[in-house]
Amino acid sequence: MNVNRRTWTLLIVTVAVIGGVYAITLWQRARETQRLMSELQSPDHAVAAQAMTSLRERVASVNDELIAIARQEGTDARWRALELLAHDTTASSREVLTDALQAPDPVVRAAAASALGERGIRGAADRIAMLAGAEQEQMEVRLAAVRALQKLRTPTHLAEMSRIATDRPPPPPEEPEEQAEEATDAEEAAEAQEAGETEEGPEAEEWSDDTEQLRIEAVRAVAVLGAQSGPAGALGDDPATAAGIVLTEATSPVEHSDRVRKAACYALTDLAQLELSEDVRTVVVRSLLEASDDEIGDVRIAAIHGLKTVQAPMDLRDEVARAMEDALDDEHYWVRVAAGEEPIGG
After folding, report:
1. Fewer C-beta within 10 Å: the chain N or C terminus?
2. CB burial class (10 A; 0-12, 13-18, 19+) of residue 50?
């Protein structure tokens, strides 16, 4: 086929235009990327957060710069760079993330643990488990570490997660009430007020369970780690059965708060869906049957949801059927819905 000179000219011009547009696009993108990298280090957190969002899809093109920032101590940009390196795949960034687990700043340690979990770097699991179990560690770091271990799915750390899941700090001992002393204190306070002495001492802080959220995350991790194949380990039983026993203990109303018990019921259901053996389902269903009679409505909802989801062993099906019938008459509306009642509004 003959192509005349005019056609060749048009083809050359078209290629030149396309090439020019492509080059300009690359140049503009590079300039925008550098602007985002500058904003990543901004003292304005809102500006930096927006830059992080935009940079997630460009990590491969700026990984060297991010690694350099991730090595800088004493800046907010360091933990931001570590979070972005969760989307990188290079060995050099993996080393930076692992080293950052020992950084003096707890925010940096937490970001490093989260990033290692996102990337599935199991080689860092032992170090992350040490952070999770360190009682003197900042809570934000321990939470990030537990969530990372859940993503890494290393069954060898089931024992550590089990200890965290069931380790509720004891409340302070109650002081005996002595009415005579209270009356004396009241009289002295009244006399001091009359004399103009109104100075007040510090109020006693109310005890709070500051590990509750940590235990909630730990029971979720126990379900995931227990379903992984592996040796029996420190807990004696096979991982799934051991996890079921630990989660059963976490549903105890004597030892654990309402929110932990609710999370443990959902975690039992997750365990039975991940590990389908009859022994595990027996442990799970028995635990959920016990929890279905809990005095807290949210715990009953979680238990009934589990009983409806998990396939019960043959010898427990009658008990499950009775529990579901009782749930349909429960005073709590959402328990009845969990058991199968049609919700209002369809």
Report:
1. N
2. middle
Nearest CA among 40, 47, 89 for reference residue 69 = 40
Q: What angle do CA 279, 159, 240 make, to 5 degrees?
A: 15
b/e burial code for range 63-81 (CB count within 10 A of at least 16 → b): beebbebbeeeeebbbbbb
Side chain identity at 91, as an amino acid letter? A
Q: What does the alpha-carbon distance between residue 48 and residue 63 come to, in Å, rounded to a whole number?
A: 17
Q: What is the pLDDT of residues 25-74, one digit of tens each?
A: 544 555 677 788 888 888 888 988 898 888 888 888 888 899 999 998 88
For residue 95, give both structure tokens: 């080393």
Write the secondary structure of 79-90 as one string of H (helix), E (strand) and C (coil).
HHHHHHHHHCCC
Q: Check if the beta carbon of residue 248 is closer than 8 Å to that of residue 271.
A: no
User: Do 275 and 226 contact (CB within 8 A), yes or no?
Assistant: yes
With 80 as the cut, is the pLDDT of residue 166 above it? yes
Q: What is the DSSP letter of 318?
A: H
pTM for the structure as a whole: 0.78
Measured between alpha carbons, how far is residue 145 from residues 27, 157, 185, 342 in Å?
A: 40, 12, 48, 40
Cα-based distances in Å from 153 to 124, 222, 226: 12, 10, 9
Alpha-carbon distance of 337 to 288, in angstroms, equals 17
Q: Is the dihedral of CA 105, 106, 111, 115 positive or negative?
A: positive
44-58: per-residue pLDDT in tens?
889 888 988 888 888
| DSSP codes joined into one string, 111-157 | HHHHHHHHHT-GGGHHHHHHHHH-TTS-HHHHHHHHHHHHHHT-GGG
Q: Which amino acid is at 226?
A: G
